[in-house]
Amino acid sequence: MRTITAAVSGIALLIGAGFARADFVVPPIPSVEGPITEGGDMYPGLRPEAPGTTAADFGYATDEYFVSGTANGQPYKTRILVRHPLPPERFSGIVVTESMHSNGFAVTFEPARKYFFMRGHVHVEIAAQQSNVNTTLKGFNPVRYASLSIPSGAQTSEIIAQVGLLIKSNLSNGPLAPLSVRRLFMEGTSQASAVLRTYQSQKHFQSRLADGSPIMDGYLATSTLGNAAMMVVDVPTVHMPTMTEVNSNGGAYRRPDSDDPANRYRLFEVAGMAHANSRETPTYVPNPCTLPVSDFPWGGMAAMGLNHLIEWVDHGIVPPHAAPLEFDNNTANDGSRFALDKNGNVKGGVRNTYVDVPVAQYGVPNAGATPAAQFNCSIAGWRVAFDQETLNDIYRNKGSYISAINRRLMELVREGWMLPEYADDVRADAQAIEITPPGRR
Question: Are 98 and 286 in contact (CB under 8 A)?
């Protein structure tokens, strides 16, 4: 076990030309203990994973560290998980941080983890919220996590800033050693996107590296709630509200895409993508909702947005623009305010094979079959499969359908709206569809 003591004190500095704020503080680097190997079972931060999809299956290791210091005037001690490739030579230089969601999981990494594993990126999960420690970690293993404490909810942003500086400092005895970090990002989904937004407002300009540059090099906010637009910051932001949020507030948060160095921003509203789905969330198996819960590939589309963000920051590759989802406010159509195409799927937005070569209608909102299930179902999308007559009318036979899938898939990969890592998943979904010609039924 290696231990690091705090190395940088918070000192007021003056930002040089080109920065939008006049004053900032260099946060202290927290003390670190680990890797932690004693005290019983480690809380994994992920729900049960299917065979073949785990970190070990892709040659990744997961190490736990305890970090401690003073944040917002009070001492704290919490944990971080570092998910990293083996051997170290596979590391891409990219680290993506994520605050543990209040539900106890890394809800962006979890469904998008194949992208990390195949690209060699490191994921650092930060237990930055009070409930992460008091409810999740101590509830799972009170012995292993007995020493952890976050006494105030007001410490969250400062903890993230300190951990970010720790990661970016590339200390020889740091938790990522011997890896050398080139770029650091922050992602957040749903409740954890609120943590990201709060970090932006409280720390993005106020806490910086000693040279005045940002701690975080970019932000990915997915399934993010509320009517407020994303904050304008001086690093790229990719904003991915889902159909659930768009339908609930009518796109009140929308602001124009921008390539201005002080306001680099993309809005990606993905057609067919709801806040939650059954493909990656065991909450919906068995189905507790009135309609079949959508199995839309949330993780693959979130990975697409993250990849655009990383390429923008790391290589200067400017992302494409996407049209917003379209409204007609005719809630008599499928219960939403969206404008629908001839097959009943939403118009506009980031396109994909699931809505462009459809075998089902994807929509929001769903509803609980019981009152206890209402919240989880209200944030889930639904998927209603086409009957055989409809499939025959659209495609004639399965061969025609598979050909259409492959053509559209290759177009989307070339355009950057689908990552090649997920092409086989799309094809596997298509192969599972049965289309029986009328004469054979």
Answer: no
